Amino acid sequence: MKLPGSTGSCRFAGFTVCSFTCSRRCVQTYTMAHRDGIVKAKTRRSKRFLQSREPKLVEGQKSSMIIRGGNTSETVSQALKDVYALKKPNAVLYKRKNMVRPFDDSTALEFFSKKSDCSLFLFGSHNKKRPNNLVFGRMFDFHVLDMFELGIERFVSLRDVKTDTCPEGTKPMLVFSGELFETDREHQRLRNLLTDFFCGPRVSAVRLAGLEHVLHFTALEGKIYMRSYKVLLKKSGCRTPRIQLQDMGPSFDLVMRRSHMPSDDLYITAHKKPQVAKPKKKKNISHDAFGTRLGRLHMQKQDLDKLQTRKMKGLRKRRGGQTAETPATKAPRTDE
Amino acid sequence: MASCSIEDVLAKAERDEAEKLKGITVNKELDLEFDPGNLLAFDKNRLDTREFKDNKREDFLRSLARDNTQLLINEMWKLPTERVEEIIVAKLPDPTTPFPREKPAPKPKPPTKWEQFAKLKGIQKKKKTNLVWDDVHKEWRRRWGYKRAKDDTKEWLIEVPENADPSEDQFAKRNKAKKERVAKNEYNRLKNIARAQKINVPGMGLAPTPRQSKAELAQAVNVAKISTASVGKFQDNLPKEKTPKNTGKRRKFQPLIGDFGSEKQKQLELLKVMDSKKPRLDITKAVNKQMREEDRESAHKRKQGFGKKGRRGNMSGKGKGKGKCPSVDCCQIHKASLVKQSQYKYPTPMGRNIGHS
């Protein structure tokens, strides 16, 4: 970081402004300078924008970017569009071809993530070796945390299923079936990633009639079947309705290919919760059933022989006995 | 008879219940794991692969999905509900699935220099009103910003103060002062950031810039010289370079926020002294000063007696031009002797000596 030097008659002076060009490194230094607070935002609007990108104590919704790779087939393009439709308000779709290889070099993905402030990504590509490839991934601090490569074997698009769909932005219900999601470590992580990807915004309350969309993932025979249904709530005898499902939306038959898992400490760092200042609990104070306030006192060990008790004149030892109590001590008021 | 009927009644009630719940009950081997906060359900049961054939695949999946969703919906309907504007809404608990964060948690910012000082002194932030009454325009205006109450820049008349140079541009002076204040503010802000991030930045004027004055360069050279392991002890000087002798602090000030007790004492003493009517005269000091004066006088007189008369004579000629007495005391003594000489009616400048020679 450079501090201002002095110019001319002014003792304190102006400072160098990093001019913003379209090169990547400059973007990095620019954003870092903004993040450090060195370059101040000039308008309220830009200040608000930068504040929204700062790390927060409690994080809001993660946005995702859907990127099209160097060469995509019809299936993959349609699949990307459908996922974008599912995730509509909090997703960006990069329609142009990007020659990126996520498993070899993830810097391009990191650059995109920094530019658009997205932490989830979905990358689709197609080549002879890996046909109809989808890579689901997550970022932590703009570096790739974990990635899973899935191949599409069968795909039914939104367009092909001619039923009415639920409104955009509904929070979907997620159901995972199959013991493979429990036993296999990779599948466990994949389950976590898919939940993170498809669960909507974090809400405190949900309208019961609005639970319309359900995404169902089944892990069977090494493949993952993703289906999307519209929920119809029918009358049943009691308060809880009976469910009927209607086919809707995209359905995928996926097969697991490569994966990139993070190291254990990176995973732990990513899960670290910030130290929220808790109010200091007053120790040694308790309340009993009646509401009385009780306290505890901690005393040093006392020598019971030398304890200062009431003096009973009659019990006092006579003639050279132990009168450790000096005449300075007051005589008790009450008569014994 | 009665007992039978009671049993019958209970059995009938149970059957009725079962009938009611028939629609929504689902039988599963293992219970599902729920996370209502995320609307998530996880079914660990083993899936029957026999039913999973090509033509029946979708149906199998759909029925499985229906069962699992039914269980999840049952779980959702157990949550506490409330009515928000005629809509029944279920309050969701906190999500239990741990997700990794997007960005690392923000670190608490260390306090700035002013904040530290304010905390130490106990200065509280005073909430200021947004609008201030402007007498000139007779309306409420902002405290700062566009169309503010007291706007210096909009003044078309500035009185020239008495002790100022009449040819100085007061408007330019005001602008320059403002620029200095802004630059100083910026400098302090950046220093705060540097302190927060624990970056060591060189002091004022030591960082290289395009234009540096002679004094700044000299300071930079001196600082560079003492920046060695032995604090510049073994650094040689350049051919014509002179080591500055007067380095170090010349005045020592008390720290700004130090011992509050002693600060209070000092200030009370000062007030006491100001209050007292007696003149502040230190007798010992005055006596010592007088004694020193007398000693000097007598010493000088002795020197005069044994001193070089010729030099004195020369001195008289050059007296008006460049010639100065070797010591200031000498002149004073001469003045003193002048006073004495006036008694002798010979008002010559050099007094007795000339008379002698």
UniProtKB/TrEMBL annotation, chain A:
GO terms for molecular function: rRNA binding. Belongs to the RPF2 family. It comes from the Eukaryota. It is found in: Nucleus, Nucleolus. PROSITE patterns: BRIX. InterPro entries: Brix, Rpf2. Keywords: Nucleus. The keyword Zinc-finger does not apply. GO terms for cellular component: nucleolus. Residues 309-320 have a biased composition (Basic residues). Residues 62-265 form the Brix domain. This is Ribosome production factor 2 homolog. Pfam families: Brix (PF04427). Coiled coil: none annotated. Its main location: nucleus. GO terms for biological process: maturation of LSU-rRNA from tricistronic rRNA transcript (SSU-rRNA, 5.8S rRNA, LSU-rRNA); ribosomal large subunit assembly. Residues 297-336 are annotated as: Disordered.
UniProtKB/TrEMBL annotation, chain B:
GO terms for biological process: endonucleolytic cleavage in ITS1 to separate SSU-rRNA from 5.8S rRNA and LSU-rRNA from tricistronic rRNA transcript (SSU-rRNA, 5.8S rRNA, LSU-rRNA); ribosomal large subunit biogenesis. Belongs to the RRS1 family. Residues 299-312 have a biased composition (Basic residues). This is Ribosome biogenesis regulatory protein. It comes from Cyprinus carpio. Transmembrane segments: none annotated. Residues 290-327 are annotated as: Disordered. PANTHER family: RIBOSOME BIOGENESIS REGULATORY PROTEIN, RIBOSOME BIOGENESIS REGULATORY PROTEIN HOMOLOG. Pfam families: RRS1.
